[in-house]
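Exercise 7. Given the components listed, write out the predicted structure of the assembled complex. Treat all entries as one system.
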Amino acid sequence: MLLLEAFGVMGAGIGAGIVALGAGLGIGTLAGKSVESIARQPEASGDIRGAMILTAAFIEGVALFGEVICLLAVLAGK
Amino acid sequence: MIHHKGTSHFFSHYFLIISFLLVNLLFPKLVLGNKNKENTDVHHAEGKKDIDMSKIMMHHVIDAHDWHITDLPGSESGQYNPIQLSLPWILFNLTTGSLEFYRNTEELLASNKYVVAHEHAVPVASTTPITTISVDSAEIDHHNYIVSEDHHGHKAIYSKNAAIQVLDLSITKTVLQIALVCILLLLVFISVAKSYTKRGISAPKGFQAIIEPVIVFVRDEIAKPNLHGKHDKYLPYLLSLFFFIWFSNLLGLTPLNSNIAGNISVTVTLALLTLILILSSTTKSFWSHIFWFPGVPVPVKLLMIPVELVGMIAKPFALTVRLFANIVAGHLMILALIGLIFILGEGGSKPGAGFGIAPLSLLFGLFIYAMEFLVAVVQAYVFTLLTAVFIGQAFEDHSHAHDHSHSHETKHH
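Answer.
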C-alpha cells in the first residue's frame, strides 16, 4: 500500500534526523570534555586520544542502531 | 605448525596450477556481456534516463549470486550487458534430501523448478507466470505466490510450490569474499610464523615487523587487562577475530571486493561464536549472580532475573548490530555521495549539474572514505575488546573485588 510506504519513509526520515542529533550531542560533549582535559594535562594526550576514539565508537554504535531501525522502517513498507 | 626449509613449498607451481584448474572447472563463470541481444521497448524522454539510485546502492551492499563487476556500454538503453562472475547455486532440497548444483543462474532457471526473487531461489509449480501485470508486493498472498523480477525490471507473479523446501548453501559473493580474506590471512600469518622459526629473537623484518606490534597490542591492551590470568587460552580466538574483522573491512573498501560485515549473517555468526565462548567459560558464581543477584532485597532479586537474562542476550546482539551498521552505513554514505552526481545529472540530460556537484561530492566522499579506514580498525578493536570484557565477566571472581585496587600495577608509557 502506498500509504504504508509513505509513512514508513516519513518516519525513517524524521527518525534518522533525531538519531543524528543524538549522536552529535553525545560525541560533541565527549569531544569538548576530552579537549578540555588535554588542555589541563598535555602529557596525557595520548591516553585521552585513545579513550576518545574508543568512546566515540560506542556512541556512534548506538546512533547506528537507530539508523538500522530507520532503514527497516523504509523497507517494511515496500 | 608447518615447518618449511628453503623455498616456500606451500605455494609451489603445482599448487597454483591445481587450484587454477579447480577454480575454473568447478566454480565461477566469467560473463562478458550478453550473447542474446534482446530487443527492449523501454521508452525514455530525450536523453533522460531513469536512474534508480537506491536500487544501485542496495545492489552494491547486499549479497548476490553473481559478482557484478560492471556493465558494457549499451546497457543504459535497457539491454542486459553485464561483466560479472557467475557464482554457482548449491541447493539442498529438504523434501527429497538431495543436493542440487547449478553452475550459474541461467542453469538454475533452465531447470524449470525455481525462480529467483530477491536473490533467493523459490520453488515454483510452473515457470510460466500467472500474470505479468505489475501489482504491489503487499497485495499478494505470499504463502502461495511469489513476485519475481527479470533483468529489465519486469515483474511477474508465479505460483509457489509449497511442497518443496530448499536450503540455500550456494557460494555467494560474501562466501567467496570470506574465502579471499581467509587466504590473505593465511598468507600473512604463515609467513609471520615462518619468520619466527627462521629468525628467533633477532630483529623482525617484513610482515613480522608490521604484525608483531599489533599482536602485542591485542595481548597487552585487550586480553591481559580483561581476562585476569587466563588470557593465553583465549588469545588465539581474540587475535583471529581482530585480524579477520580488520582485514575484511579493509578489503571491502578496495575496488572489485565486497564487504562481508555488511551482511548481517556474518556478524551474527561472529557474535554467536562469542556467545558460545562466554557461555562455555562461565562459573557457578556467574549464574548465581544472574538468577539470585546478591546484595538487594528479594523483590528486586526477582526483577533482576529477566533483566539479567535479557542483558546476556543483548550484549552479543549489540556486537552484531554495531559492526553491521558501521560498515553498511559507511559504504552507503560513500555510494550516496557519488550517486548524487548521477541523480543531479539526471542520467546525462543535465551534465552541468552533474559536473558541478562532482568536486564537492568527491571531496566529501574522499573524507568519508578516509574515515572508513579508521572505522575499519576501530570496529575490529571494539568487537575484540568487548568480547574479552564479556568473557572476563563470565569467570570473574567477585570476592576479590577489593583486592583489585592494590594488586593492579599502574599503567606506564
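Discussion: The longest helix of chain A spans residues 2-40. Chain A has a mean pLDDT of 88.
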